[in-house]
Write a structure and sequence with these properties.
The chain is an alpha/beta fold. The chain has one domain: 3-Layer(aba) Sandwich (Rossmann fold), CATH 3.40.50.450. The chain has 7 helices and 6 strands; from the N terminus they run αβαβαβαβαβαβα. The strands form 2 sheets. It has a 3-stranded parallel sheet with strand order 1-2-3. A 3-stranded parallel sheet has the order 4-5-6, sandwiched between helices. Strand 1, helix 2 and strand 2 form a beta-alpha-beta unit. The protein is globular and about 40 Å long. The relative contact order is 0.16.
Length: about 180
Amino acid sequence: MGSSKAPDETDAPRLLALANQLGRVIAKRGCVLVTGATTGAPDIVSRAARADGGLTIGISPASSREEHVSRYSLPDDGVDVVIYTGFGLKGRNVINVRTSDVVVIFGGGIGTLNEFTTAYDEDKIVGVLEGSGGAADRIREITTLSHKRGNSRLVFESDPEVLIDTCLSILGESG
């Protein structure tokens, strides 16, 4: 889960490399990647995962390909499978989280924050890619404000490979 906006030009090369690395690791670990079928970081991660043989699924807020492309201005070639929900952006976010065993936060804005709070509230394993900017770099602060008690497992890591391996280890322990 991450920002659909292009990264700031000054940090774009680093974030692009980080997103590509994350996508490759997800594919190499045999994970199925679920995204919001959007632009920006999720699209970059998805294309990297696909290039390495990973299966990618995009959950669209639109009810059809036409609406996906024309109303939401989203790509239709960034994932292997697009599921058109018609549930809008927030509805799509809930589907993204609920269908994921592990939720990874990469940068992001208010939509990513919505996905994080949904995952956190629903006791998902949440991996936060530190140093990716946006919401991801504020998650520690947000969790201290919540005083939530529950079974959420949060993993904070700046290395995509270590992040995914740690999250998968926790998933293996809970399954």
